[in-house]
Amino acid sequence: MTNDFYCDEVMSGKTEVKKVYETDNTLAYYHTKPYYRVHIVAIPKKHIPSLTKMEEGDHAVFSELIDTVRKVAGEVEKEYGACRVITNVGQYQDSKHLHFHIASGEVIK
């Protein structure tokens, strides 16, 4: 069993998500278990394990992903005044698929 929620659940369609923005190679959607008031996740549709595990051939997809993050973060900043853009690696990364959190507001308790 892999530890890749994004491939196993989101990209397979097993878990439905509310899409925010999508391109041929990326997807941004509202987090299924939000930690912040506004919590969006942006992923590449291609499996890339993490920021530090990218391969040479991943650069074009990564560039498209960063553009998706930029656009979504810009909209969140415009609407809410500020946002965080977070990615985790190593032991901090629960799902072993590159992803960015775009978040704004307080932590949901």
Task: Summarize this entry quickly.
The protein is of the alpha+beta class and 109 residues long. It is built from two helices and five strands, in the order αβββαββ.
Distinctive features:
single chain; 109 residues; alpha+beta; HIT family, subunit A; 5-stranded antiparallel β-sheet; 2 helices; 27% helix
Structure write-up:
- By secondary structure, the chain is of the alpha+beta class.
- The chain has a single domain, classed as HIT-like (HIT family, subunit A, 2-Layer Sandwich), CATH 3.30.428.
- 27% of the residues lie in helices and 27% in strands.
- The chain has a five-stranded antiparallel beta sheet, covered by helices on one side.
- The mean pLDDT is 95.
Global morphology: globular
Alpha-carbon distance between the two ends: 31 Å
Strand content: 25-35%
Instruction: Give the C-level CATH assignment.
Output: Alpha Beta
* Number of structural units classed as domains: 1
Radius of gyration: 13 Å
Order of helices and strands: HEEEHEE
Global structural class = alpha+beta
The low-pLDDT segments are none
> How does the major sheet shape up?
5 strands, antiparallel
The CATH architecture comes to 2-Layer Sandwich
- Specify the helix fraction band: 25-40%
User: CATH topology, anyone?
Assistant: HIT family, subunit A
Give average pLDDT, whole number: 95
